[in-house]
Design brief:
Largest sheet: 2 strands, antiparallel
Radius of gyration: 33 Å
Helix content: 55-70%
Strand order of the largest sheet: 1-2
Mean pLDDT: 90
Oligomer: single chain
Strand content: 5-15%
Distance between the termini: 83 Å
Length: 110
């Protein structure tokens, strides 16, 4: 450089450029971290929803069987085994809420 002033101008210009790049990089990293956090949270919720939906068919079957054999269910029972007409009449254990009527238990399961 021909003068000290030019040298200082060049130095501070490079420093300003470096600081700006560093600041933008930090902002970009924050945005990416936020999106990654949201996506992980969403994936966890979707996984839970998938697990629940996979059990939906079991609940439907239990509800239908309970509705079919409603006259055999007594109020206050906690569990009952009924023949599963979907699976060669094998006994199917069904948990019940003892404070609900048999019909309400069937609706709750469905």
């Amino acid at each position: 450089m021909s003068s000290l002033s030019e040298l200082l101008d060049e130095f501070y210009q490079q420093k300003a450029t470096h600081d700006r790049v560093h600041q933008l990089g930090g902002q970009l990293i924050e945005v990416i971290k936020n999106h990654l956090h949201k996506d992980r949270k969403k994936a966890k919720k979707l996984t839970q929803a998938l697990q629940i939906s996979q059990q939906a068919d079991q609940y439907r079957i239990k509800g239908e069987i309970l509705t079919t054999y409603l006259n055999q269910v007594k109020r206050g029972e906690q569990q009952i085994e009924l023949p599963n007409y979907y699976d060669q009449q094998k006994p199917l254990p069904i948990k019940l809420a003892p404070n609900l009527s048999p019909a309400k238990n069937a609706q709750k399961i469905l």
